[in-house]
Design goal:
Radius of gyration: 12 Å
Structural class: mainly beta
Strand content: over 45%
Helix content: under 10%
Order of helices and strands: EEEEEEE
Length: 68
């Protein structure tokens, strides 16, 4: 799975979880971008930055097509 760039479509606090179960809250603003691995789940995406993951509703992010 390769990393893709996403853009957050809403402002708020999201809770990321590590593999060991530790939680980390991060504030994001609308328009913030992040390169993560993405796994599609029903109506959401699991975002993985290499250490932390979060389940994000599909309506709250936009996947940026970084292909030429």
């Amino acid at each position: 799975m390769t990393k893709q760039e996403i853009e957050f479509l809403a402002t708020g606090v999201i809770t990321w979880v590590s593999k060991s179960g530790i939680e980390c809250r991060r504030h994001v603003r609308r328009g913030d971008r992040l390169r993560v691995r993405i796994a599609k789940q029903a109506d959401s995406y699991e975002l993985w930055d290499g250490r932390w993951s979060v389940l994000m509703p599909a309506k709250n992010i936009r996947i940026i097509d970084d292909k030429p």
